[in-house]
Design a protein that fits this description.
Blueprint lengths: L2 H11 L4 H8 L3 H8 L10 H8 L3 H4 L9 H14 L9 H8 L11 E5 L3 H12 L4 E5 L2 H10 L8 E4 L8 H11 L4 E6 L4 H10 L3 E4 L4 H7 L1
Parallel strand pairs: 1-2, 1-3, 3-4, 4-5
Helix pairs in contact: 2-3
Length: 227
């Protein structure tokens, strides 16, 4: 089920109007209406508050259900929130990260084939929806090993242009995957997408050859500009 439909369903179950939900989330009723009709999505930074107000799990909100196969996604979400809400003095904000990478938003240069490697189902869905709305094609992998298999399988097909890579992954971590990608696919651009935005990790990603680093939680435009 689409996120907007889930928001609407749980809003109605709680006998809330769009105005009441908007007031509880400190947004306009028009914003709620846009979510429910699929015109736009809530910023990921708002997800913890939406979960709290509607009494819905993160997996349910992102249409992942509550089956055992989705527990990994739920755990990854909880870890993400815990990291983001942890001691902020240890994390860099996006402007600080950009200064390390010397990032400047780029002009759009056509559609890309993008590989998203993240173990959280909801995050892959979120990023896929963001990029698909900009007419990019998206492949998904839930682990570094699976991502590398996809890249190997496309050696004789249409090459992947950009890889969006989380750091906290089962098995190989994102920095290890980054090393393999830079060694075996030197033309592939890698954007790290992680809540682990400490100065040490950001600089290590740059040293290993990442093209950019986007900190979670993030604005859609931040990621789209880097694609």
């Amino acid at each position: 089920m689409e996120m907007g439909n889930v928001i609407k369903e749980y809003r109605l179950l709680r006998n809330m109007t769009q105005e009441e939900l908007g007031a509880a989330l400190l947004v306009t009723s028009q914003a709620v209406s846009r979510w429910e009709t699929g015109v736009s999505y809530p910023d990921i930074a708002m997800i913890p508050e939406i979960v709290k107000v509607l009494g819905v799990s993160a997996d349910q909100l992102f249409g992942c259900g509550s089956s055992a196969s989705n527990k990994g996604g739920m755990m990854a979400y909880s870890e993400l929130v815990a990291t983001v809400q942890g001691p902020q003095d240890r994390l860099l904000n996006q402007s600080q990260i950009d200064s390390i990478f010397d990032d400047v938003p780029q002009q759009r240069l056509g559609e890309k084939l993008v590989l998203v490697i993240d173990d959280a189902d909801f995050m892959r869905m979120m990023v896929t929806d963001m990029l698909s709305s900009q007419h990019h094609k998206v492949l998904q992998a839930s682990s570094g090993e699976q991502g590398l298999e996809i890249l190997e399988g496309r050696t004789n097909g249409i090459p992947v242009d950009v890889c969006i890579l989380d750091i906290r992954l089962p098995g190989m971590n994102g920095l290890e995957v980054l090393e393999r990608i830079r060694r075996d696919y030197p033309d592939l651009k890698v954007i790290m997408l992680s809540a682990m935005s400490t100065e040490e990790i950001v600089k290590k990603a740059l040293e290993l050859g990442a093209a950019s680093f986007v900190a979670k939680p993030f604005q859609a435009c931040t990621l789209i500009e880097r694609i």
